[in-house]
Amino acid sequence: MLPVVSSDVLRRNNVRITGNPAGRVLVFAHGFGCSQAAWNLVAPEFEAEFRVVLFDHVGAGDSDLTAYDRGKYDSLDGYADDLLEILEAADLQDVVFIGHSVSAMIGVLASNRDPSRFGSLILVGPSPRYVNDDGYTGGFEPADIRDLLDALDANYLGWSAVAAPMIMGNPDRPELGERLTQSFCSTDPDIARHFAHVTFLSDNRADLERVTVPTLVIQCTDDLIAPVEVGRYVHEAIPHSALAVLSTTGHIPILSGAPEVVAAIRRYLA
Amino acid sequence: MTDSEYEKRYRQAPCGLLSTDISGVVLEANDTFLDWIGYPADRVIGSAFTRLLDAGSQLFFETRHTQALHLRGSVREVALRLKRADGSVLPVLVNSELRRDEQPAVVRTAVFDTTDRLRYETDLLQARKAAESSEERVRLLQDVSSVFEGSATDEEVAESFAALCREAFAATETAVLLRDGTGGMRVVGGANPLAGTVPPIASLRNTTDVIAVHADDAEPEFPVLAAGLREARLESLSIAPLMNDGESLGVLVCFFRRHREFDERSFDLKRALGRQAAQTLVRIRLQRRLEHLALYDQLTGVANRQLLQQSLDAAIGISARANEPLALVFLDLDEFKSINDRWGHAAGDTVLREVASRLREAVRAGDIVGRIGGDEFVAICANSDPHDGESIAERILAVTHEPILLQGVAITVAVSAGIATYRPGTDPRPTGDQLLIRADAAMYSSKTAGKGRVTLEPRPVG
């Protein structure tokens, strides 16, 4: 394989580095269905103190779609490769990796491969396997995943950038509007479909016990996608991990319960 | 209008209307919605809206819809499936708006029953997906066939086949293994991530139909393979034989980092691709064989007259450009006719084959040997001055003079040799034919001088 030039990596993954250059590094990774915009309510809260790194997975947001290689991105390993390349390209050390949803597992895979760059992992709504198995409750049956893929097809139009008006009318937080780009949460429907396959049909349970980096699991109440039993499973499987259960409900606390997520991260890093 | 009239219009609106808080808990719902869903108000109010969806819609709603709604402020025409109290499913389209101007922020949603439209759209979608997937299949087969058309070697076929299949099947790696002459197989295209860790497994490599192997259930049958897969972080692989006329020429192996379920369609496609690759290999091998037939002597396997002439012209050109001498050795068996007469033509052929084989061993690597007709052979020796040419010719005479067994009897063969040389800068540049005639003439001098010897063409004096 050809050596990857760091500026190419930063452009490929639309890497944005903000915040306090002298601060500890926080790397935020978005989950399935959106882009780095998913961190719009959380990441800015850390900019005064921390160096904040945001990026889009290839296929999402403003990433380089021409870099989408179906073979590479057919497993979370391909995304973990990218994450390690980003850390190397931006020369980041002692990284606090904060991954939402599927990105939690991407962080686990990357830190297992090269723990040296990671200071800790913060996993928001992680699930190592969404499909039930003998003696394991992931929450879903294979038929449910097929239904999701049908739902993606039925909502084909919703993936394109056409229907993305610039709304975020928040008079108190005018900077939020500036952060949004026309393309947030938009992507190519075929890529969304493939990413859904990879996200919801992967099994990374065996990778949890190999984690050596200090880890915090953030679990919401009443999360249908990553139920509390799954959060506990992750917490128990990762050696020396901590578990924070939030009162916020649903799978997207980083948008629906941002202040509580910010507080949990702050507590852990304090 | 009075408040109660407004309320009536809200309650009985011809669409479902509901409000949820920012985390998706239902705050209120109108009668239309409650009628559709079939639950009493107290079961709906206060619980999460996602609880009213089927599992596929829940996954979509929680991972996609919620993020888009929060960031865009509204979403339009989202297709979801409501799970009613009686267990049936109601397909709906949903518009939602996030009102951050209210305290606390609230999401207002309108729900439209789309049973009929959705059935129609689903049919269309199914038809489109079926058409797309068969189009994809046809396109892939076409791509493969156009790439194969431009391939001239096994390596080109294997490389392009591996690359196309890696893309088409979203495989982490693909490898094309072809049988070599010794009954083994080697990687000719793509890469084998298990090379060096998993020794070849004959039953897999010799398969005559497509098979799949998964790391998590391969343990009992293939323990070493299972361990190798885990080591390489691979979860599944598929093996497709390249079949032609019931014979397997090799295999296409696709490696996957993720556990894959393969359906009959994907097996069938791999079968078809494997056949196409095998047919291409057969075609180019036949072509290669025909080219070989046209340029090599069928009896002895060395270059024929045509190839010798081409090679000699090329060698003279190279010699002139590189300013290096060139020697041409012309060889003729002595008394070959009497061997034929005494032992028969089959024995004569054996002698010619043996001489050709010894000739190949006697020359240096890079020298070209050929049979120019009857019992005449030629060796083209690049970068050889007259002295080099002479010592090569002497070596040839020595090895061909070793006894040859014919029907249990050892006979010896003598050879007469003549050498012509071209020294760029000193000699005028000859044509290939001229150099051949001169070497032939030198050989003839050997014959007249008593055979079994080497003659260097006389150099003009002065």
Report on this model:
- The complex is a heterodimer of chains A (270) and B (462).
- Chain A is of the alpha/beta class and 270 residues long.
- Chain A is built from ten helices and seven strands.
- A seven-stranded mixed β-sheet of chain A has the order 1-3-2-4-5-6-7, with helices on both faces.
- In chain A, helix 1 crosses helix 2, helix 2 (76-89) crosses helix 3 and helix 4 runs antiparallel to helix 6.
- With 462 residues, chain B is α+β, with helices and mostly antiparallel strands.
- At the A-B interface, helix 2, helix 4 and helix 6 of A face helix 4, strand 3 and helix 5 of B.
Short description:
Chain A has 270 residues and is α/β, with parallel strands linked by helices.
Secondary structure blueprint with pairings:
The complex is a heterodimer of chains A (270) and B (462).
Chain A (H helix, E strand, L loop, with lengths): L5 H7 L3 E4 L5 E5 L21 E5 L20 H14 L5 E6 L1 H12 L4 E7 L17 H13 L19 H6 L9 H12 L4 H4 L6 E7 L6 H10 L4 E8 L3 H4 L1 H12 L1
Parallel strand pairs in A: 2-3, 2-4, 4-5, 5-6, 6-7
Antiparallel strand pairs in A: 1-3
Chain B lengths: L2 H9 L4 E6 L4 E4 L1 H7 L3 H4 L10 H18 L1 E10 L5 E11 L6 E8 L1 H35 L4 H15 L4 E7 L5 E6 L11 H4 L5 E4 L8 H9 L4 E9 L2 E10 L7 H32 L9 H18 L3 E8 L2 H8 L1 H18 L5 E6 L2 E7 L3 H15 L3 E3 L2 E3 L3 E8 L9 H17 L5 E3 L6
Parallel strand pairs in B: 16-17
Antiparallel strand pairs in B: 1-2, 1-5, 3-4, 4-5, 6-7, 6-10, 8-9, 9-10, 11-13, 11-16, 12-13, 14-15
Helix pairs in contact in B: 5-6, 5-9, 6-9, 11-12, 12-13
Keywords:
heterodimer; A: 270 residues; alpha/beta; Rossmann fold; 35% helix; B: 462 residues; alpha+beta; five-stranded antiparallel β-sheet; 17 strands; 24% strand
Helix content of chain B: 40-55%
Spans of at least 5 consecutive residues with low confidence of chain B? none
Computed Rg of chain B: 40 Å
**CATH topology name of chain A:** Rossmann fold
Fraction of residues in helix of chain A: 25-40%
